[in-house]
Amino acid sequence: MFETVIFDWDGTLADTRLAVVASFQKALKEINCNISDEFIERRIGTGSAETFREILRSTKTPFDEALIKRLVERKIQTEIELASWVKLFPGALALLEALQGKIRLGLASMNNRRVITHLLNQMSIRSYFDAVLTADDIAHSKPNPEIFLKCASQLKSAPDKCVVVEDSIFGVNAAKAAGMKCIAVLTGVYGEAELEKEKPDLIVKSLTEKSRIISFVLA
């Protein structure tokens, strides 16, 4: 039996796509950098700083780390301002309620801590998680497994006793690299065929498939 479930946030527990994309675009507009929404969407989960670096490389825009820091700060401010755009996915709260008290729960998000703290408090769901890690707590972005391994360590769980719930190929890869089982949910931008290639242990269409998820986790 598993001891811990570690959830991703963006695209997994919460529908943040519109707010995240708008926040990136507002920051980029200030330096007259143009990129498609899709480019941003397909990199959600790798962290704000790394996404900005990829965008600026792709558009051949000169940058240094001071500029990246400034862009990330603007993105954080805007995303907090747009917090009302963010909603939990159907089934998310019911799943957290069903698991709480039966298994340790962690949150491992490549979003920034100020954003995650604001959203968790706004939605009154911080109490469900025994540990919350964000991009501010690690040196390496997903698909590097660092964030999942640190979360498991905080929860005093061995990797093979952890299940990760993710929506992105980066997240699935990170979970597998950490030696953890992974449930992929089709609520992000990645389709079933794309996620299947990364070999998650279970794929669900949404978190409303509570019985399948709980059966896997508590079997």
Task: Describe this protein with a few key phrases.
single chain, about 220 residues, alpha/beta, Rossmann fold, DNA polymerase, domain 1, 6-stranded parallel sheet, 8 strands
Write the layout of secondary structure elements.
Layout: E1 4-7, E2 14-15, H1 17-29, H2 37-41, H3 48-58, H4 65-81, E3 87-88, H5 92-99, E4 104-108, H6 113-122, E5 131-133, H7 146-154, E6 162-166, H8 169-177, E7 181-185, H9 192-196, E8 202-204, H10 210-218
Helix pairs in contact: 1-4, 3-4, 4-6
Task: Describe it.
This protein has 219 residues and is of the alpha/beta class. It folds into 2 domains: 4-16 and 86-218, 3-Layer(aba) Sandwich (Rossmann fold), CATH 3.40.50; 17-83, Orthogonal Bundle (DNA polymerase, domain 1), CATH 1.10.150. It is 44% helix and 13% strand. It contains 10 helices and 8 strands. It has helices spanning 17-29, 37-41, 48-58, 65-81, 92-99, 113-122, 146-154, 169-177, 192-196, 210-218, and strands spanning 4-7, 14-15, 87-88, 104-108, 131-133, 162-166, 181-185, 202-204. The strands form 2 sheets. The chain has a 6-stranded parallel β-sheet, sandwiched between helices. Strands 2-3 form a two-stranded antiparallel ribbon. α8 links the parallel β6 and β7. α1 (17-29) crosses α4, α3 crosses α4 (65-81) and α4 (65-81) packs parallel to α6. The radius of gyration is 17 Å and the shape is globular. 43% of the residues are buried. The mean pLDDT is 97.
